[in-house]
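>> received
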Amino acid sequence: MEEDNPFKDTLNTDEALHAPARIALLLFLLPRTKVTFSVAQKALNITAGNLSSHLKKLEKSEFIYIEKAFIKSKPTTTISITSKGHSSIMNYVQTLNKALEDKP
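>> returned
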């Protein structure tokens, strides 16, 4: 049986998580039910185009759910983390913690 290797586990992390903005967004979404696009943009301090690009990648990987609706006659985009996104970011954090705790 192969020994538990946190460094190998880090290398096997889903590619959708390998961007600081995507990691930050998932961590931001963890304790929240839903956030609007503008709230996420302000929290991450990134441009609308940059956020939009990251959202597409996270949505494609099924880590987030995006809903577009009209609220008070204004188009509004809301973002929610999915159970897959929740477990993926939590596993990623655990993998990093294991790698940091590894003693040579």
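>> The chain has a mean pLDDT of 88.
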